[in-house]
DNA sequence: AATGCGGGGAG
DNA sequence: CTCCCAGCATT
């Protein structure tokens, strides 16, 4: 039996084997009880680059707050971002709102029903379009996500670097061949992702109890821990944030982040970024309006420290609380506004800011 | 083809 | 520590 005919046999047996495995290992997840494209769309956007365990409570809260796409379309974008707070990749929330409005206002509340038309919506790429098309409408189009790359790379011994365009096409083509043998495209797509999440895991795949063990090129050659091949990512950038937390009469000065940077449309404080960690307030180039304030009214001579690890940046933050006298409260730097504690609670904020507020004010 | 974008959990 | 998660948009 040569390798080629082994591979062909594996291809025809792959989907049925996963389907069988799935029947016994399927988790009970809320978005598996519906074919409502709105709910499936919402769950898929939430789950982009996000583990099920992390995304699930957000899904529940979103469905509670916005039971239909029309409800979401009506929402204030700030409230939507506030609900999204802590999930990261906030462009997902902005695109969610944009698409909800588009579907409601331009499509009469009806989601597009094909892979190709779904792909045209903001925030929907190849993976999400395939997921919605198959789960909600039964279209026979394969999902290709991180789980699928891992499972296929191992079972079929694909050593191509999955970050390259060539490999992406190779995996997509393979996935298309495989789904042809599936009984039900939706179940099969769920099955392969579930299999990757539970059985064929990144670190310690459960090969001993794997139904594909004797067909898996990686297992048979002992290479499962080396696949998939993925170019290592760029080193994380270190940044130093110095926050001046202006306070007056129980209110804090905050501003919306609008720059082309992290945390767009979330709220934080007056920020001075430096190339090196700062030890004292006098080392900072302070805003003109705050100078007299800083001389006399700084509350925190030693700042609160904060750390935020992002996948692409490591942020070291320091917070100086500064009491602003009434005489200067209308002289805030451009963009800053006073907010009461209640208002601040309703603003969407990065986790770094929320953590600071919690540790400072409870 | 490269880069930027969050935050958290697992090993 | 490192890796990576039901990826996508922009350049």
TrEMBL record:
| The protein, known as | Adenine DNA glycosylase
Q: Where is the HhH-GPD domain?
A: 46-198
Any idea what job this protein has?
A: Adenine glycosylase active on G-A mispairs. MutY also corrects error-prone DNA synthesis past GO lesions which are due to the oxidatively damaged form of guanine: 7,8-dihydro-8-oxoguanine (8-oxo-dGTP).
Q: What is its EC number?
A: 3.2.2.31
Does the keyword field hold Lipoprotein? Answer: no
**Needed co-factor(s):** [4Fe-4S] cluster
Family, according to the entry, reads as follows: Belongs to the Nth/MutY family.
Q: What class of enzyme is it?
A: hydrolase
Paste the cofactor note: Binds 1 [4Fe-4S] cluster.
**Which residue windows are transmembrane per the record?**
none
Pfam families cross-referenced by the UniProt entry: HHH, HhH-GPD, NUDIX_4
Q: Which domain of life is it from?
A: Bacteria
- Keywords linked to the UniProt accession: 4Fe-4S, DNA damage, DNA repair, Glycosidase, Hydrolase, Iron, Iron-sulfur, Metal-binding
Reaction(s) catalysed (UniProt annotation): Hydrolyzes free adenine bases from 7,8-dihydro-8-oxoguanine:adenine mismatched double-stranded DNA, leaving an apurinic site
InterPro entries with a match to the protein in the record: A/G_AdeGlyc_MutY, DNA_glycosylase, HhH-GPD_domain, HhH_base_excis_C, HhH_motif, MIG/MutY, MutY_C, NUDIX_hydrolase-like_dom_sf
- Record-linked SUPFAM superfamilies: DNA-glycosylase, Nudix
């Amino acid at each position: 039996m040569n390798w080629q005919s082994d591979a062909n046999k594996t291809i025809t047996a792959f989907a049925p084997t996963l389907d069988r495995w799935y029947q016994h290992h399927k988790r009970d997840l809320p978005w598996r009880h519906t074919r409502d494209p709105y709910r499936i769309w919402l769950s898929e956007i939430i789950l982009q680059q996000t583990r099920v365990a992390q995304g699930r409570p957000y899904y529940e809260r979103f469905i509670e707050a916005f039971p239909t796409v029309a409800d979401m379309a009506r929402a204030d974008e700030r409230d939507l971002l506030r609900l999204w707070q802590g999930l990261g990749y906030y462009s997902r929330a902005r695109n969610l709102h944009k698409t909800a409005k588009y579907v409601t206002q331009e499509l009469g509340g009806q989601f597009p029903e094909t892979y190709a038309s779904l792909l045209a919506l903001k925030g929907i790429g190849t993976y999400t379009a395939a997921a919605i098309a198959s789960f909600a409408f039964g279209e026979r189009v394969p999902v290709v996500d991180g789980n699928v790359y891992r499972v296929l790379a191992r079972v079929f011994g694909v050593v191509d670097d999955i970050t390259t365009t060539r490999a992406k096409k190779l995996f997509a083509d393979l996935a298309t061949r495989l789904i042809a043998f599936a009984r039900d495209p939706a179940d099969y797509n769920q099955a392969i992702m579930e299999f990757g999440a539970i059985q064929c895991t990144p670190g310690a795949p459960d090969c001993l109890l794997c139904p594909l063990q004797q067909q898996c090129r990686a297992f048979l050659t002992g290479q499962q821990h080396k696949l998939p091949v993925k170019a290592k990512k760029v080193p994380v950038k270190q940044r130093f944030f110095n926050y001046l937390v202006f306070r007056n009469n129980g209110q804090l000065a905050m501003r919306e982040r609008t720059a082309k940077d992290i945390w767009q449309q979330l709220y934080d404080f007056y920020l001075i970024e430096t190339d090196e960690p700062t030890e004292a307030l006098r080392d900072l180039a302070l805003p003109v309006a705050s100078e007299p304030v800083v001389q006399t009214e700084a509350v925190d001579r030693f700042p609160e420290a904060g750390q935020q690890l992002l996948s692409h940046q490591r942020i070291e933050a320091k917070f100086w609380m500064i009491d602003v006298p009434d005489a200067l409260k209308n002289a805030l730097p451009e963009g800053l506004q006073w907010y009461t504690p209640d208002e601040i609670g309703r603003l969407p904020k990065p986790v770094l800011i929320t953590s600071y507020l919690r540790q400072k004010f409870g």
